Amino acid sequence: MKIAIVGTGYVGLVTGISLAKLGHKVICIDQDKDKIAKINNAKSPFYEPGIDEQLKKMLDKGLLHATEKLEEAVLTSDITFIAVGTPTVNNKIDLSSIKKASMQIGKALLKVEKYHTVVVKSTVLPGVTEGVIKPTIEKYSRKLLGEFGLCMNPEFLREGNALEDALNPDRIVIGQIDERSGKEFAKIYAKVPVSIIFTNLSTAELTKYATNALFATLISFSNEIARIAENLDEVDVLDVWKGVHLDRRLSPHIGSTQIKPGVLNYILSGCGFGGSCFPKDTQALATFADQLGIQASIIKSVIKINETQFQRIILLLKKALGENLKKKKIAVLGLTFKPNTDDIRGSAAFPIIEALLSEKARVISHDPMAYEKLVPKQLTNLQIVLASTVEEAVTDADATIVVTAWEEYIKLSPHFFKKLMKRPIVIDGRRIYNKHSFLSSGIIYKGIGL
Ligand code: UGA
């Protein structure tokens, strides 16, 4: 089938590549000329393992290309995806890109005679597809629903695993405004051996928020338990999670082996959740619940715990280094919100760095992916030094804080810190080190939940 995708961010481009791999002809559309040029040169605008290689393959096969020309792309396609961003502004979902894309698609549909299905991939709150996107398309296309189709198909891919998630989805949720829309759209997944849930638009929209909010809740819950553990003698929250994880309901037995489901990775304590999705989606959901007159006290607490988790790191640091951080050299390892991505949006590193700077500490940070060009205004305004190697970052430091669990940091030995640092204080924000070997080597080792 011929598919147009509006928006070449994570969701748009990865969806495009995976649909091209299924044999569809995909046109990716973006208003940003630089992005278009990059994509057509097989260079993804963002980092994702293996993406440039897959992109090149699809370009070479003529199954994918990028363009600025939205109308032309829609006119030559059977299905148009909306995959533009839905950021949270002033705690509310910002629909300006969604409205613009819907208007442009509507205008293009004015000239389309055959049945065309519009599919919303962007994360939007319940009611948006029906209440905002549908009337906008109807207005500008001068067509009524039925003359075109409309579906909501949430995306569940994770950064760092995006291609794998998109190529092997665990489920496909299709919110359909009418049966024909869902039936026409589902044809693109004909070759994918996976369960498809057909439902209505609002259920599909809420499924996406409920999924993200659930994982965010697990993380904040784990951090709340860590706070309790930190206040008890001889309790390490890692041992607590070991005991919890082995519950058969969390780690079922298949034959004689007990499996370790992915959900367990979210039932662990650390610096808190970040990224471009969990923080914005939990906030948008909480505000939406308020509008419905629902308290949403769990989601609000999840956000609050996450927003204050950075203080736990500062507290641990002060326990080791003393209250006065002025002129102390602190190495911060990791700027991305998680490993294997170059995304620094919502990263726990920033509130930590801001807190350190407000106490007049000297901050030197390192990250294997977030090079200087990726550093946003927020960071360039901060007086921090970016080290090009981890050795440079920790040399002569009074303390090191690990914020992101990059493989490169996991491999570091106690000896490495002892040899280079002024004082061997390590604050493990992701609990990546073996506390026994660090403590027995003379490191002043502190970690979340310890
Ligand atoms: C998240 C969801 O996991 C995806 O299902 C969803 O499609 C996506 O948002 C979205 O809404 O577009 P992503 O933000 O890439 O994807 O990342 P995750 O890997 O789930 O990470 C989110 C947060 O959870 C991060 O702060 C990360 O550090 C934390 N996390 C992640 C863990 O604590 N443990 C893990 O094993 C993975």
Strand content: 15-25%
- Specify the biggest β-sheet: 8 strands, mixed
Q: Into which percent range does the helicity of residues fall?
A: 40-55%
Radius of gyration over C-alpha positions, nearest whole angstrom: 24 Å
What's the short story on this structure?
With 450 residues, the chain is α/β, with parallel strands linked by helices.
Protein architecture, described:
The protein has 450 residues and is an alpha/beta fold. 43% of the residues lie in helices and 15% in strands. It is built from 18 helices and 18 strands. It starts with a strand and ends with a strand. It binds uridine-5'-diphosphate-glucuronic acid. Uridine-5'-diphosphate-glucuronic acid binds at residues 123, 155-159, 212, 215, 219, 265-266, 273-275, 277-278, 337-338.
Furnish the topology, listing elements before pairings:
Blueprint: E1 2-6, H1 10-21, E2 25-29, H2 33-40, H3 51-60, E3 64-67, H4 70-75, E4 79-82, E5 88-89, E6 92-93, H5 96-109, E7 117-120, H6 128-141, E8 149-152, H7 162-167, E9 172-176, H8 179-186, E10 196-199, H9 201-230, H10 237-245, E11 253-254, E12 257-258, H11 278-291, H12 297-321, E13 329-333, H13 349-358, E14 362-366, H14 377-380, E15 384-386, H15 390-394, E16 399-402, H16 407-410, H17 414-420, E17 425-428, H18 435-440, E18 444-447
Parallel strand pairs: 1-2, 1-4, 2-3, 4-7, 7-8, 9-10, 13-14, 13-16, 14-15, 16-17, 17-18
Antiparallel strand pairs: 5-6, 8-9, 11-12
The structure holds uridine-5'-diphosphate-glucuronic acid.
Uridine-5'-diphosphate-glucuronic acid (UGA) binds next to helix 9.
